[in-house]
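Workshop exercise sheet. Pairs work together: one partner reads the sequence aloud, the other fills in the structure field after running the prediction. Swap roles for the next sheet.
Pair: D.N. / O.F.
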Amino acid sequence: MSENNPLNRNNTSDEIKNNSASQTFFDKTLGDIDRTESTGKNDSNYEAKNKKSKERDCLNLKKIFLRSSPKLIILKSAEDLCSAGVRCATTQHDSPYGRRKKPLNNDELSSYNNTDTKNNSAKRFSSNNNNNHLHTDANNTNKKQCNKKKGHSVTGLMLRTLIGAAIAILASMSLIWTPFEILMNERLKMVRGLPAYDWWLNPPDEVLLRVYVFNITNAEAFLDGSEKKLRLDEIGPYIFREKLEHSDVRFHDNGTMTYRSHRTAVFFPELNELSLNATLIVPNLALLGMSSYLWDANFLTKIGFNLLLNKLDSQPILSSTVYNYFWNFSDPLVRVARSIVPHLVPVDNMGILQQIYHKFSDEVTVYYGPHNGRRFFTLDQFNGESRLGYWQNETCDTVQGSTEGVTYHQGIRKNDTLKYLRKTMCRVTPLYFKKALYKLGMKAYRFDLPMDVFSQPTDGHTAQCFNKPGYPDLPTGLNDASPCYYDFPVAVSFPHYMNADPIVCRKLEGLKEPDPEKHGSFVIVEPTTGVPMESRARSQSNLVMRPVKGIKRVEKFSDMYIPIFWAEYNQVGLPWYITALMYFTVIILPVSQFYISVSFIIFGLSLCIFTFYRLTKRKKFDQKPLYSYSSLDLLPSTPSTGSEC
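Structure field:
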C-alpha cells in the first residue's frame, strides 16, 4: 500500500516492518493472478490446469488478511458503530493502485487489465453493478436502523426532561398549596373510598358501655316502715361494646349529607367479671312509674288504680336477674294497662337498655365540604326536623350546631363550645375547654361537661329545658327526660347526684361521694383535625316520684328520686392506623413538607440539566464524522472469476 494511505499513517514503525514481507507477497500474488488471467483467457483448459494453483493463491491471500491486516477488523467495528446509531462518513483512501472513493468501474478495469476482452469486462461490470446494488440495500437498511435507534434515544431523553420539569413545577406549587392543606380539604369532602369517609362509615369498635345498677339492700325494712331511708348498693360495671353503623348515605347540593345512624350494644363476657344471671332487688319501674304519672289524677282514677293493684298484687320492689332488668323487664300491670290505655302505655317491655336501644336508629343530616369548615359534621336536621320537638323553648330544643360526638370541626380553638347530642339525655349539652395536654405524642384539648349543666337556670327563660310544663320543678342537678320516654317520669343527672341539690338524697343511703374524675364527662380532641381521641360521657337515670297521695302501696316513695342506673360511654382510643395517619398529618407533614418540596425541586431541575447535557453532547458527537473503510475497498476489482475467494 502507498504511504499516503490513512491506515498506514496510523501505523507505528514496528507495524510497517512486520508487515513489509507480507505486503510484498500480497502485491506479487495480485500481479500473478492478473497476468495469469490475461494470458490464459482464451485457453479452454485454463481452469482445469490452474485450479489447484489458484486455490493455493486464494488461501495465501486469506492468510494475508488475517495475519498482516488486523485493521480490517477495526474497520469492521467502525461499521458496527454506524449501525448502532453513530453518524459515519466515508472518505478517500489509498490502495496499491491509487486513490479512489469507490470500487473501480469498468473503464478503470479495462485500463488496468490490458488483456481483458470485452466479454469479460461486461461480465465484470455486471458483477460490480450487482454488488453495488447489494451494498446499497445493506447501507439503506443500516441507515434506517441507525435513525430508528437514534430517534428512540432522543425521545427518551426528551421524555426525561419533561418529567423533570413537571416534578420541579409541581414541587414549586406545593410550596403555595401545601400537601397539608390539600389533605385537610380532602377530608372535609368526605370522598367515598378515602380513609376519612371509610372510618366514619364504619367506626371502629372502640366505644365501651359500662353500666352500674343499684341494688336495694333493705327492701323489707323500708316497706314496713322500720327504716325511713332506702339503702342502695352500687353493682357493676357490666361492660358492653356499643356498635355504631352509618348507612343510606345521600349527598345533597346544598352542602349537606343525610344518613341513618344505628347503635347497638353487645355484651362481652370476656370483658366482665359479673354475671348477667345474678339476682337484683330493684324498684318496680312499672308500678312506681305509673303511680307517679297519676300523681295529680282525680279521686276515681286513683280508686280504680288501687283496685287493679290489689287484684294483680303488684309490689313496689321486686327481684329480677340482671339480664331481665336490662333487656326484658316487665310486670302484669304493664300488660293490663297497655290493653286498657295503649296510647299511655305504648310498650310492655320496661328493660332499661331495651328502652334505649330498641329504637336507637335516627336519620341525621349534617354539613360537610371545605366551604362548611367550621360547621363540618354539625347537625342541620334530626329525623327530618331542625328541632327535637321536646321543649317549647327553641334554644333548648334545637339540634343545629351540635354533633353526635363521632367527629368535630377542624381547627378547634380554646374558646369554642362543642355541642353534643345524646338522645338518652333528651337535649343538646355543651362542652367547654378545660385544659391542653399531650396524648399519643400530639397536642390535644380537653373539653368538659360543665358541673352546672343539670342545674336549674336562674334567668327563668331556659327553665323550660329542665322541667316539663305543668309538673313540679325538679331540684337543681336534675334534668327532666320524660319527653324522650313516653312521658315516663325519669330525670337525668350526674352519677351519684354529683353537684345536685342535697334534697334529692334525703331518703337515700349508700350512694358514693361524687368524684369529678370518676363521674364527670369530657372529651379529648385533637384540635387540628377535630378527631376525638378519648371521651367519657357519664349520666345517671333516675325515677322521679312525685307526691303520690291516695295510692297506698307507694305512698312511702313520695317525693323521692330513686336512682335506676348510671352509664359510662367510653371511647377508649383509636385504631393504630387512624392514630398513625393523624400523627403523620399533624406532626410529620407540617414540618417536613417544605423540605420535601425543595428536595423534589432540586431533583426535577437536576434531571432537566442532566438530560439537556446528554442531548447537547449527543448532538456534538453526531456532527463529528467517523471515517470508516470497507475491506472491499482495499483490493481492486478484477474481472477474473477464478481468483474470487
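Discussion prompt: Residues 321 and 336 are 23 Å apart (CA to CA). What would you look at next?
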